[in-house]
Amino acid sequence: MQDLDVLIIGGGAAGLMCAFTAARRGLRVVVVEHANRVGKKILMSGGGRCNFTNTGATAANYISGNPHFCKSALARYTPWHFIDMVERHGIAYHEKELGQLFCDESSKLIVKMLLDECEAANARVLTSCSVERVDAEGDRVFRVHTTLGAFRTRALVVATGGLSIPSMGATGFGYELARTFGHSLRPTRAGLVPLTLSGTHQQRFADLSGVALPVTVQCNGASFSNQMLITHRGLSGPSILQISSYWQPGDDLTLDLLPGRDALEVLEAQRAAHPGALMHNVLADVLPKRFAQRLCEVWLPDLPVKQYTSTQLRDAAALLSRFPIVASGTEGYRTAEVTLGGVDTTELSSSTLESRRVPGLHFIGEVVDVTGWLGGYNFQWAWAAADACGKAVCAV
């Protein structure tokens, strides 16, 4: 039996960050990770370059049953704090778009940085170490049985992530542990995930797989402007991944196919300039050609635009501005970047991430009901929650 001050279950972004934050204050800290290496989701993120934060991160970029919960941690550990650490380790980075910061070289550098910080702070990291059972032994004492032995700790941090991308080792262990200790869970589902189409809707788009175009997509009051990609199963691309976190089966979903432009003005200008042009050729000036052709095969009369009546032209503009999409589902956890829902934040302290039910028990990162937008926001939540927790356990 090894005695510890802090045991952290999960060697991902939040777990590693919490480990060295706590260990810097002289605490005995161990991270246990069931996979054969830590930081697997970090390594695959951002196409292998890790979109490690977003300079514009605020509480407004997160979805939660309590939208105020994440404010405290995010305010105390900002993107600039993490950027300082990245720069201190000499990791070159760049802004891609919309405040998204990526490594110039490889996401491996972020994992190495976190491990180097753990080593410098004397936080131990154990891989291929699965938790078999956790028992509470009185006030702030936990006995954790693992495949590499048993630990007694006065603070237990659950940083196990969510259900997304099971091929990378994701499991529901954190949720099961939360239930064991009497915590409530908000329903979980895949987020930041491609949408699927079925039946006639899928047939109309299937052979357009690979076509991409900028759109503004809207659902349930949320709106995102970015690229959309048509796939052989449905729709993907940044705009679709973003809106997927707000969409559920049966919800209305619309696309503005000419974002930032007045569709009626565009069509009227084209009719004035090219009255004899067929509608599909007119649309091909502002949309991908194959997509424009499909619109005129299914939804719009492919007539010379001069033959369009004013009413028909307004109807065409309305279609382009609010093009309806009937999604049947999502690609699920297999390709989802995050898991929505999780440990109910009403049962956690927003300043320490400690359980209100079980003193000494903390939940951080994706296992908690806080989910960020696409673009580095989820990593920023991991860093901020881990920092808040790592500093809090020192005061126990």
How would you describe what is shown here?
It comes from Cognatilysobacter lacus. This is NAD(P)/FAD-dependent oxidoreductase. Residues 189-338 form the RsdA/BaiN/AoA(So)-like insert domain. Keywords: FAD, Flavoprotein. Its cofactor is FAD. This protein has helices spanning 13-23, 40-44, 71-76, 79-88, 108-120, 173-180, 199-205, 238-244, 263-273, 279-284, 289-298, 310-321, 377-392; strands at 2-9, 29-32, 51-54, 62-63, 93-95, 100-103, 124-126, 131-136, 142-146, 149-158, 185-191, 195-196, 212-219, 222-230, 234-236, 253-256, 323-325, 329-330, 338-343, 361-363, 371-372. The protein contains 13 helices and 21 strands. The model has no long low-confidence stretch (mean pLDDT 96). It has 2 domains: 2-190 and 340-395, 3-Layer(bba) Sandwich (FAD/NAD(P)-binding domain), CATH 3.50.50.60; 195-330, Elongation Factor Tu (Ef-tu), domain 3 (Beta Barrel). It is 31% helix and 25% strand. Strands 1, 2, 7, 8, 9, 10 and 20 form a 7-stranded mixed β-sheet that branches. A 7-stranded antiparallel β-sheet has the order 17-16-13-14-15-12-18. Strands 3-6-5 form a 3-stranded antiparallel β-sheet. Helix 1 (13-23) runs parallel beside helix 5, helix 1 runs parallel beside helix 13 and helix 9 packs across helix 12. The protein starts with a strand and ends with a helix. The protein is an alpha+beta fold.
